[in-house]
Sequence to fold (228 residues):
Amino acid sequence: MKFFKFLIVGFTLAIGIIVAIFGIKTEDDTPATGKSETIDAINISPETEQNEMQREPEVVAKVHIPILSERERAAMPPFIQAMPVKPFNRDSNHNWFRDDLELYIAYKFPYSPKSRAAYTQMAKILDRMGTDSGQTQTPRQVTLWKEEQLALKCFYDTGFTDDELEELKRIVFDSEHMREGYQMVIDKRQEIPANLAKSIVIPEDACDPILWENEVTLQEWKPEKTIK
Fold:
């Protein structure tokens, strides 16, 4: 009887020791790989997430722009030599025009201010339509419509073709968002009252004179010589 009593006590004591040892080992080992670390790793605060969303990386231009050698670039007009070799698809010089499109047009027509102005006028309105996505009110949509008609007339009057227009659209609409945005603006025109649509009048000379003057000025521009 005593033997069984001691046996039960000893067995109970052994179980207690094993449980104690197992518990201590679990506490020591879990912090490095345990569940709590996984939760902390994915528990991003709203402020951190918002800051990450605001820090959008610069997007390299998808427009195919040839990389000129130093000799080829030196043969270009000075205003082209002053442009970035690898532009981004954003407006870094604050002239309301994407850097990649500006360089693309400059390379295409290095010695023709008139051609650059017509291409720029068309590219600018296409870019604005793509970013608008039909989200603005009716007066703004009427303005976009009129400016597009002006740009189209200037584009064709300068001697460019439908194929060149389609090529320019492919370059300007460098993302699905831009392509869809442009189509939304076109679709939005069905909601514009007829009297407002009829109020759009296109003059005989539809080319933007300010753009043309700017391009002429660029063509004649020369960098100032530094005095040593």
